[in-house]
Amino acid sequence: MNKTEMGKILYIMQEQYRAENITERTINAWWPIFQSYEYKIVELAVMLMANERKFTSFPAPASLVEYISIIEGKADPSALWELAYRAMGKCTTFTLETFNELPEQIRMFFGSLNQLREYGLADIDELKFTKLDFMKELPTIETRIMARKETAKLLDASKGQLDEQHQAQLNRLIGG
Asked: Of 59, 163, 174, 175, which has the highest C-beta tally within 10 A?
């Protein structure tokens, strides 16, 4: 992420948290922390934080890094469960868009917005078993996510090779 994108992120956060004006000094302080992250990931983390309304004032950089870790699948299971638990608590106000902003592990566990709502309306005693199931299934879910990403990489690589082969055949046919 470049400095301009960092500024955009901070301005989004300023609007969400009604913070004081963002200055060049603020951007320069935050940018070294986030320069290695992709803009879209950081933007998604900010939106996730805003949707949860967990913070009443402008959050610290470490809080944003924690949300980025969750999105990137590097969060510890208890942090993911906490996020899932809060989502269940707000299930009646969730839209499909809000559900789709949740980390992939949580979306895969619940399967759909309707399923999340069902869990959210369950008795508190049932949620103990839901947490156990979540923790038990999380390694499998993360393995499936990694396998899907690896498959997508392989497909992209093979598509590139096929495109090169087709271009070579086309060049031979047209004499180029």
From this structure: 59
